[in-house]
Structures are given as C-alpha cells and as structure tokens.
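Sat 14:20. Reprocessing the chain from the morning session after the first attempt stalled halfway. Input below, unchanged.
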Amino acid sequence: MTTLRPFCCDDMFKFNNVNLDPLTETYGLSFYMQYLAHWPEYFQVAESPSGEIMGYIMGKAEGLGDNWHGHVTALTVSPDYRRLGLAASLINFLEDISEKKRCYFVDLFVRVSNKVAINMYTNLGYIVYRTVLEYYSGDPDEDAYDMRKACSRDVKQKSIIPLTHPVRPEEVE
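Finished this time. Tokens:
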C-alpha cells in the first residue's frame, strides 16, 4: 500500500530513482531544503511499503490579494510507478492545502512538449492560462504552459481566464 507522508531531509538521499527522469526538473540540495524549511506542508512523498520513494510533490503558497495562490514547483513519479494515480493523489493533496490557506487558484508550469503531463493536468481540471516563452533552458530553450485551476475562493473564476498573448519569464509574477 502506498503511503503519502511529509518529505524529510533523509529523502534527499533516496529520490534519485525519481529525479533521473528526463522530464523532471532537478534542483540543488539547498533549493529542496529551502522549500522544506519554508513550506513543509506543501512537500509530500509517495512511499512504497519497502520504503522506496515512488514520487513527490513540492510547492508553496505565494502572491498578494487575488493573486494569492498555491504553486506546484515539482511533481514527479518514478517511471516504475506511473499510471497508478499517484500524481493525481499528490496534486489533490496540494490543492487541499491551498484550499485551507484560502488561495484563489493553484498553478504550475509544464513543458509544451510534455503532452502526457498536459493531458493529465487537463483531466484534473487545469486550463492553459498562458504560454511563457523560453521558460525552460536548453538547446533550444523551450516554452512552458502556465496551467491553472481555480480554488473555491475564486467564485467568479477570474484567475483562470486565459491570456490571449504569450509572456516572457521576467513578466511572470
């Protein structure tokens, strides 16, 4: 049986099987530690009965006024454990935290080429809010979709009215 539990420092020594996936953004240890220190409630692990990390979600709450929102910084599931509903369980957990924090919406960024993830997020109720040009560095740089899902506080769902033009990374709040 899979266990969802809070991420802890020791997990950084056990999550290479998840982070080595080419579609997973990886960060320096200090970045993970910063999230763990500032937003521990948004950092969850899916763990197998044997103690293997199956996937994790890392996020935060940010913004001001009606831009107060939950943000998915990273969501990844090991290739061995995909198509079991773990990503949906993890993102539902983050959405619940965002609801409790009275956020207006939850957002995330995804590579425009990652059709599997885009389809999954769409099936979970997310919409493409805008395109962020050259968000992911590489050769060449790749655009991202900023996808959003309104929380219950956004009664009029203003936060998910799509922009009609792309933006550059420096224009993202």
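Helices lie at 16-19, 29-38, 86-100, 115-123.
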